[in-house]
Design brief:
CATH topology of the largest domain in chain A: TIM Barrel
Radius of gyration of chain A: 23 Å
Strand content of chain A: 25-35%
Number of domains of chain A: 2
Number of strands of chain A: 20
CATH architecture of the largest domain in chain A: Alpha-Beta Barrel
Structural class of chain A: alpha+beta
Largest interface: A-B, 41 and 40 residues
Largest sheet of chain A: 15 strands, mixed
Oligomer: homotetramer
Helix content of chain A: 25-40%
Shape of chain A: elongated
CATH superfamily of the largest domain in chain A: Metal-dependent hydrolases
Distance between the termini of chain A: 75 Å
């Protein structure tokens, strides 16, 4: 029948549209690892999102990310009048598109409770339907048996914590004690929770940051305000699902959001130096030297707190450079700065020492 | 139960997101009428689209349109494994959101057959489920009984007409003879079909242009290539569903696509003059005069074929103006131009006469 | 000689380049007047600017302004080694280009002294060379004899007032007493001085705001940070030099800078209502009403301080609209807001009352 | 005196403005060399340009270029009524700013005659005043004695060659015979001359492309139409004036304009492969393979003429990638394409063979 041929053609065209173009994200990268750009929190029509699962693959592919988890709510199913509940449907639908675009699709779901415990994502699961149980601890236990990485979502979300401050409740401490909590969202959608830096540090959990997108990425995170969605960097040995999982349980993560990066000290410094470099002085008038400070990433670096005889602030533009004029003594001494948009703790930012290159 | 409160909160927030901001489209307008900006062809997850119906309302609201028809395929239901077939679902879901945003939602559907007859939209229907019949003529008859406006979609679509040229088959002539065909798409998605100008003119049908969007509007029609989706202008007596319908059956329409406008002569000239005006000469050196030519619309006007003693071409920018230097004789004679981006027939464009204003 | 023909051709082409396109600025306008968009402070290579005078005409023409004053420094002539001092040269060079583009060119100069008195522009002069005198009061007297409007520039400029706070010195009071001071810059380049609102109000002086451009406008005031240069609105009876001058001495001015407008009460409210309008309620559910609030200008309106039962803030976008959902009581009562980006005094902003239109 | 301090402050601030930010151009680069981005043709107020010489340094610095030549006309001095003729002034004024920004400033001038010989730039000169002689050959001889590189400018400029086609006149052949002509502009402003590819190839001359800017770079070469000015790539051993000169006389150049690159075969292929790479197949369904094709430059690569079993065209986006689906046979055979925007001759473009990487 002719109609069939026609329909196949339509389908084929729809698929082609996805092809379009993929942007390359020029981000700081951790030497010795593959820096995977990941979004571990997103929704579709299979809970309260506005898009079909394949749209999520198209978005991450075009935006230059490597990994997406679709994490529809288990307990919140506002579309069920029209779409029969199937907690694995989004995963099944999106998988072949992900394979066609070399995107790593993480099977996940969002366990959606009032606070405490709040909302938690179970990632790297094998069956979401089996996580639809009344008792919260039973759900987590089942997810952990599937090998899940458990992420506590937006712990300071004002709908659940009116003061916006994340708090560790007994249930969270119990999860940690059991080894059943592996990461916390420091950043979600357009909010961030500074205390999560300490909560992750003190409890040896991974720092996470995700879009929690319900609508369309390009409408929520638009220029000029946003040049990219919030995302988690995972420093993996290889670009595979297995390596990704290993790296997450090993807590090798950082969070890129707006024009800021949140990362623990051990990662923050090498990330910075992977993209910033100082040239040799190109002018020396006997009093001062002039040299270039370059930044090869898509993230502007905001240096503040410069010392006497050097610029007090330096905004090193994304994919750009500035000229630094500094005292001659800095031929031999380093110039200390704070990088005010690389966050290393709830009250600390990265400290760096700039040294002009040798000729 | 706490969860319920929470869930309602989530829903409320999702709704708020739509609020954002609505753009005002500064388009040519037909004096004496309200120019409604309309898209009569769009899809959702209820056939082969990628979005939930409310997304279509958010898009038209933000983009400054007045009217949207969701026209999911009747015969093509690739999501039926996950979403039970309900041809009225998209309409039911989107209606209350449309009401909250003052958007006129037209109940529609796409009758999806191989060529001939090809694809046709039935607009202003009351029940799409009842149009799911095997015989094409039975479907149209049923739609017409519901009061439908029948639009023939993309008649030169290459998947159905490999040479890209629209052709009137006997079935189309039969529809016209019965008064069962009311408009044809001159423009669809990113394609246009020049011959449709003649087909509409000769058969007294309305000229239509629509997005046929399956994915996300802001991803398909992006700057700098596109500043707006393709749309149909309908010149209505009032901004109501009834006036809209009256105007469409009366064929008071035009099509705005890319930076072009397709309209029959009777509308093209007043549309042009609703936004373009010439100032009085501000300089006169005895040989030449200088005057301003302004354009208050979002559409650049491309004037070509200027006579001796005047600029051969004039590109009057959207929301801008140019200075025209012309022979003094044009103080008393009009300056003839073709407006190459206002299309009035398959082989004709609008002719205008520019006259500087009197002091 | 062939070379001559060639050179004339080059000159002609250079002139044509200016033609390009002029943007129309959609600004609030004072009913009953022509709102002239003016920049009364700019520099060229004839003092310390980086451009030839005709570039200043091209810039204002393209940017949609009506009036420009070139105000090179009298006492600061860093280019004199290469360009012989001629304080009227910029005016002479730019005049014919201004005439070709219907731009009103104001003959001006900047009297450049240390503080007090600081820098002052003399506008509407006839000869700048004659203002090159050692005694400051002699210069002002001479300018006033030429019919000049005297503007005190950037009174809180940190290079002259390290605390950034403008101060009336005896010399300024003397100027005012003599009627020799007519306006003060509230805004200059990227700085604004709140106290100037009071200084102008109390002394019956005109509020001024200008670019003080030395380099290139499109490089200094770029999107997304700036959509236009700072400018003075002058509410004139006609678009002529004479009407401009009359309006300025009558202090009918306002200042548009960034996304803010500074204007005294008598102008602020009609300016706001010239572009903002509320529609009739399009929905009424018995508890609340829904209506549109539209803004036809290029300036976003920031409404804050909304009452119970109405949105606490409303950001009405440039060339756009929002939907307002408010208590039914606002069918009969006005909804009070502050317009936080329309400044009416050193500590006050415009108060407005929003009323949905009658059906 | 206070005024002095003030004035110095003003000067200092003006200098700082230039600092702003420098963009990094991600262009194809020739392995083994430093690819210097150069503009060898620009004007200032010292002939018929609209800007002061330091503006030219600010522009190239911000735009990421390495080299600028200011080449004001010797014979065309329309500003001489205001600016005494000094053919070396622009060089003297701009040199210290260039030194402060690590920009290589080439001392140059434009010898401006009717055609033939037309306009020629003398680059790397030591004194432009001494080139102001009536006899053309005397001028070139004098320039060559100064060590000049002689570039023939816009040989098909319609003001001098009404048919737009460059022609070798006897005078040009004489220059070549004497070794007094070293390069020809293939691209100038917004025009290009295909035959120059052959003229340079056959006569062993360097391919040149420049802005010939008279106004302001950011106004002439604006997004979305232009993302950069036209420029000459020079493949130098080091980033020094001497290396630059050596490379130019050795004809190691290419031209980047719009989204095209003109380069002789020996450079075109390595330039392409310096930024384009194919990944290993990430999917293999037994019939077809899928792999990524990436482009790390700011220049989109347009591949056309693909064979059976592979995409007929591939638009590999700037800083982006596409997915290629191709027949399994291309695991072992290369896939041939033309790169339609890398021009290698008057009628030829670069041919490449794409091979997916080994796993």
């Amino acid at each position: 029948m002719k109609t069939k041929t026609l329909l196949i053609t339509i389908l084929f065209l729809a698929t082609l549209t996805l092809t379009a173009q993929r942007r390359i994200l020029n981000t700081p990268e951790l030497p010795g690892y593959v820096t995977l750009k990941c979004d571990f929190h997103s929704h579709t029509v299979f809970s309260d999102g506005l898009v079909w699962p394949t749209q999520r693959i198209g978005e991450v592919w075009r935006d230059g990310l490597d990994v997406i988890a679709i994490t529809d709510h288990i307990e919140y199913q506002p579309r069920k009048q029209y779409i029969p509940v199937d907690h694995n449907a989004a995963w099944k639908i999106a998988k072949s598109t992900a394979d066609n675009y070399n995107i790593i699709l993480v099977h996940g779901t969002e366990i959606t409770r009032s606070m405490p415990p709040g909302h938690l994502n179970a990632l790297f699961i094998t069956d979401a339907d089996s996580l639809n149980k009344p008792e919260f601890m039973d759900v987590i236990a089942a997810a952990v048996r599937q090998g899940a990485f458990i992420q506590w979502n937006h712990p300071g979300w004002k709908s659940q914590e009116p003061d916006g401050i994340p708090k560790m409740y007994p249930v969270h401490k119990e999860l940690i004690a059991k080894g059943w909590l592996h990461g916390i969202e420091y950043y979600n959608d357009v909010e961030f929770y500074p205390l999560v830096m300490d909560m992750c540090h003190d409890n040896k959990l991974a720092l996470m940051g995700n879009s929690d997108i319900h609508g369309v990425i390009s409408e929520e995170f638009m220029e000029p305000e946003y040049t990219h969605r919030p995302m988690t960097f995972v420093f993996a040995k290889e670009r595979t699902l297995e390596s990704l999982k290993e790296a997450m349980f090993a807590r090798r993560t950082a969070v890129w959001y707006g024009n800021s990066l949140a990362a623990f000290e051990e990662y923050a410094a090498p990330l910075f130096w992977s993209v910033v470099s100082a040239g040799a002085p190109f002018k020396d008038d006997g009093k001062a030297i002039w040299f270039e400070l370059s930044n090869s990433s898509d993230m502007t670096m905001d240096l503040t707190g410069g010392p006497e005889g050097a610029p007090s602030t330096l905004k090193v533009p994304a994919n750009g450079m500035v000229v630094v004029k500094a005292d001659r003594k800095y031929l031999t001494e380093p110039i200390p700065y704070s990088v005010s948009n690389i966050i290393t703790g709830s009250t600390s930012v990265l400290k760096v020492e700039i040294r002009p290159a040798k000729k």
